[in-house]
Every structure is written in C-alpha cells, then in structure tokens.
User: Which sequence fits this backbone?
C-alpha cells in the first residue's frame, strides 16, 4: 500500500482497509500489506526493490496504478536480492505462526502458502549463474532442479504443498524447515551443495 504522506493511526487504518478489501473482494484468499510512501518508492535507491514488487507481484485495486513508473525494471540478481531483503525474519515469523496454530485454519493455510512462495522466491539467489531469470514459481522450481537435481523431490514438495496448503502437520512443517535451512545456507554462504 503506497501513501503520499505519513498517516496517523496507521495500524488501525490498515486493519480497516484490509477488512474492507476482504469484504469487497471475497474471492481474494489473502491480502498482504507492505506500506510504502511515494517519495520513498520513487527514490533511486529503492526503485529496484519496490519497482519489482509493484510491477511483477502486486495488483492495483484502488488509486493510481504505479506500474508505469517501473516499466524499465527487469528481473535480475539485484532485484531478487531487493525483494528478499528481509526474508529471514519473515520466514521465521511464518514458521512461528504455523507452529502455534492459534489462527483459523484458512488463515494458517494462507500463511503456509506465503511461506512456500517466499522460499521459492529465494531459490534464484542460490544459483551460481542465471542466464534467464524466472518469472513464475514453477519456472523457478524447474530452474533450480536443473542445478540441484539431487533436490528434485524437495523442490517438487514445495509445489505440492503450495497447491495443497490445508494440511499443516508436524511432518510437513519439519520438511519445510529442512528445505528452508538448505535454501538459507545456500543463499547466505554461496555454498551450493546438498545439506538436507
């Protein structure tokens, strides 16, 4: 969500906006809100990160469509790094929510999908060389399998779980943690070997 200026009582206003959007668009399973300010988004230092989110991952449902500001943004390593800047904290927050199981099942299913999508979006950063950056989650998995054929079962497990997020059990959660450990180590160290 992009604002032109600072907003008072932001958390309450965001909750109200999110509730209104869920009511207006019941077919949307989940709404994530990342807050940005127009000046910050258009700043040259933030263009790649925000530009990629706005151009490739967000949908304008109200107000001005900002994608025209980012027509020149293309997926590359710098963009993938920018959109994954805070991945570690976010992924651990998802795991915490899934372990506690204090939310309704539908919300937990959506959290699981977000977790898996986040993990898949990290995969290109584990690759030592990328000729063509993937534009879809399936393409990302296929590309990773070309480099890590020994991880094929684990990578296909991510897609299977993404398409069936209702099952949230200890076994699948532990397997997701093992896969994330491998992805995170590969991403953080540049060591691209089998860990799981």
Assistant:
């Amino acid at each position: 969500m992009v604002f032109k200026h600072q907003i008072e009582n932001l958390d309450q206003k965001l909750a109200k906006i999110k509730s209104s959007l869920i009511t207006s668009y019941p077919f949307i399973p989940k709404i994530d809100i990342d807050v940005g300010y127009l000046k910050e988004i258009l700043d040259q230092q933030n263009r790649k990160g925000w530009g990629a989110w706005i151009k490739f991952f967000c949908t304008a449902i109200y107000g001005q469509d900002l994608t025209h500001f980012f027509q020149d943004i293309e997926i590359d390593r710098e963009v993938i790094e920018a959109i994954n800047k805070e991945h570690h904290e976010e992924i651990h927050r998802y795991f915490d929510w899934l372990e506690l199981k204090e939310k309704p099942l539908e919300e937990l299913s959506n959290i699981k999908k977000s977790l898996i999508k986040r993990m898949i979006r990290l995969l290109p950063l584990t690759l030592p060389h990328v000729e063509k950056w993937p534009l879809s989650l399936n393409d990302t998995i296929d590309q990773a399998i070309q480099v890590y054929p020994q991880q094929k079962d684990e990578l296909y497990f991510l897609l299977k779980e993404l398409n069936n997020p209702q099952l949230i059990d200890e076994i699948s959660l532990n397997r997701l943690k093992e896969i994330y450990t491998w992805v995170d180590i590969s991403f953080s160290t540049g060591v691209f070997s089998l860990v799981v």
